[in-house]
Amino acid sequence: MSRVVFLLLPGVHLLDLAGPAQVFFTAADSGHPYTLGYVAEQPEVASAQGLPLRASLDWPELGPEDLVVVPGWRARTLADSPVLGPASLRALREHHARGGTVAGVCSGAEALGQAGLLDGRRCTTHHEVQDELARRHPRSHLVRDVLFTADDRVVTSAGIASGIDLSLYLIATRHGPAAAAQVARSMVVYSRRNGDEPQTSVMLRHRSHLSDTVHRAQDLIDAQFDKPLRLPDLAAAVGVSERTLTRSFARVTGGLTPLRYQQTLRLERAEHLIGQGATVHAAARSVGLQDARTLRRMRARAQ
Predict the structure, then answer these.
(1) Which end of the chain offers a freer environment for a tag, N or C, measured as fewer CB atoms within 10 Å?
(2) Are 155 and 217 in a shared domain?
(3) In this predicted model, what pLDDT tens digit does every residue of 63-76 receive, in sequence order?
(4) pLDDT given at position 208
(5) In this structure, are 120 and 221 located in the same domain?
(6) Are 33 and 114 in the same domain?
(7) Nearest residue to 114 (alpha-carbon basis) of 70, 176, 146
(8) Following CA atoms 83, 89, 95, 96 in sequence, which dihedral angle do they give, to the nearest 10 degrees?
(9) Are residues 7 and 154 in the same domain?
(10) What 3-state DSSP class applies to 100?
(11) CA separation (Å) from 150 to 13, 76, 102, 238?
(12) 3-state SS string over 198-264?
């Protein structure tokens, strides 16, 4: 069972909080082991929209598989932001030091900066305060015009609805693209994704369309991307001809065929496994490739 703990600060934006919370809540409903918790430096926190929120004063015991999310808050400038107390700053730093992931939505990146977690790492935030974040934390590497960044288990997003994109990315990397696709479809989320950011999930990049036929085909590929998939079987499963499926798929994914989509999923998952310490051979076998040589060729073509 993994915990997702939200650190609530005064003036918290409800969508910064509710978007990611809904993603992990929906993932739990789909069978993934998540429990949600809320902590704050006072027992009741006033949201920016006027709804009072109650939270625990005590941090739960956290492990490497757990996630801490800091939703953004309302402030004219980051200089006007709440200053985190020593206990909160220590909790953020210690959780990351133990191998855990920390995330900041919108101005929540400022909280990670106060904890020193942006130093030497890529980050982003809402476009209105990007320049100020860069000035306040000059050792960070600000990335502009993206929905989210991920760097060494420090994840930041541009703000408001982009917290949903960030959370779907985390679901995709933890449980695979099929799990993220299931959550996205349940939430009816097919908006633009972070296409210019290399950490973004292939699944998320190519879900910004309204073709139900292609979505159903992608659901099948996402769930079985590590297995042989024949185009005739895929077309039959979604009730169209092979030609119709291929043409529709290419039209909404920028030219990808179903097979190419499957291969990009395999490559993305393999890269993630290698980044976690797996050998090229083990990563290749895990994603359904015959040998490491095939994976090396795929990686070379993608560069």
Answers:
(1) C
(2) no
(3) 999 999 999 999 88
(4) 67
(5) no
(6) yes
(7) 70
(8) 80
(9) yes
(10) coil
(11) 22, 26, 10, 35
(12) CCCCHHHHCCCCCCHHHHHHHHHHHHCCCCCCCHHHHHHHHCCCHHHHHHHHHHHHCCCCHHHHHHH
How far is the C-alpha of 10 from the C-alpha of 44, rounded, in Å?
9
The reply to whether 124 and 215 lie within a common domain is no
Measured between alpha carbons, how far is 16 from 238 in angstroms, rounded to an integer?
36
Write the single-letter amino acid at 28. Answer: A
In which residue are the tokens 């990007």 written? Answer: 130
Beta bridge mates, 149: 156
Check which CATH number belongs to the domain holding 75 and give it: 3.40.50.880
Q: Is the same domain home to 16 and 145?
A: yes
pLDDT at 219: 86
Whether residue 186 is contained in a domain is answered as: no
Is residue 139 situated within a structural domain?
yes
CB within 8 A of 206, min separation 6: which ones?
A: 218, 252, 253, 254, 256, 261
Q: Which residue range forms the structural domain that includes residue 241?
A: 209-303
Helix, strand, coil tally for the chain in percent (to 5): 50, 15, 35
Q: For residue 135, what are the contacts with CB-CB under 8 A and spacing of at least 6? A: none
Q: What is the pLDDT of residue 186?
A: 85
